[in-house]
């Protein structure tokens, strides 16, 4: 979703953008997006995660395409076989190539029972990225951490917020009524991929503790993923809204009151900034987007990353203390106009132009 926004914005700025991505099962042709061109590539379903597809190696096909229509720059977003062979093809043709690190795949090994593979996954990620001229990451904190792990030439690419889509003014009483929430009933929202790495056990602990002190509270989850059906069966008292378009999900954010961010594997955490821009009272662990944007007890609550009980306590405080909740909601959006996608992509565009003019990556 992040790079969909970036591709559109770069296209609107006059750049010719081509996006290579695995062909989806549900589409025989690509969706038409006027700001950029899409090329579907061979791929396969990820075992246990049918919503996502893994791009297969395509070095020869990419080289043929790029010999015919040479790009000024190749930017690799995902480090799988397709991305890795794109790096090789660009280097073979002496085309400048950059990359982005935006998913902690090595951390996911713990969530799926493959902790022993973490060094292997980390080594693969490091090799792919270090073959590009620079690697972009969404926070200075992550740039420092990846440098410590042996990643070279780290550069900041922050994340923007669509402040028109994510706005308190999009609040809908009709939508709240469909959730069974009255005007004074607090609604806790969760938006995202329903998968093991999102720490749902802790999230539902927070919700149970919140409901114990405020029985009027409602919990709404929007999204899809491999855990969705299991969670529906385990938590029939919650409202599972399914997957919605980015525009529609803005109404969901604005119509809720509280956002609890329990994940510990984010490189940034777009959902937290979207929630704050929408005027929600937020609580999360002190890293990534939370560390960058939350001012403790002014516009949100943060807790140490090694203290899950502290997140439960913060969630309970938001459920019980209406004056605190209301004050955080009023202050949450302050300053996000400066974090618009226009500002973020302007900086990224300048970095890409510099890389394109720098010649072959090393």
Description:
This protein is α/β, with parallel strands linked by helices and 362 residues long. It has two domains: 176 residues, Glycogen Phosphorylase B (Rossmann fold, 3-Layer(aba) Sandwich), CATH 3.40.50.2000; 169 residues, Rossmann fold (3-Layer(aba) Sandwich), CATH 3.40.50.2000. It is 42% helix and 17% strand. It is built from 15 helices and 14 strands. The strands form four sheets. The chain has a six-stranded parallel sheet with strand order 11-10-9-12-13-14, with helices on both faces. Strands 5-6-7-8 form a four-stranded parallel sheet, with helices on both faces. Helix 2 packs across helix 3 and helix 8 runs parallel beside helix 13. The two termini are 29 Å apart. 38% of the residues are buried.
Task: Summarize this structure briefly.
By secondary structure, the chain is of the alpha/beta class.
Q: In percent, how helical is the residue content?
A: 40-55%
Class of the largest domain, according to the CATH hierarchy?
Answer: Alpha Beta
Strands, total number: 14
Largest sheet, if any? 6 strands, parallel
Instruction: Kindly estimate the percentage of residues that lie in beta strands according to DSSP.
Output: 15-25%
SS content category? alpha/beta
CATH superfamily of the largest domain: Glycogen Phosphorylase B
Instruction: Catalogue the unreliable spans.
Output: none
The strand order across the widest sheet is: 11-10-9-12-13-14
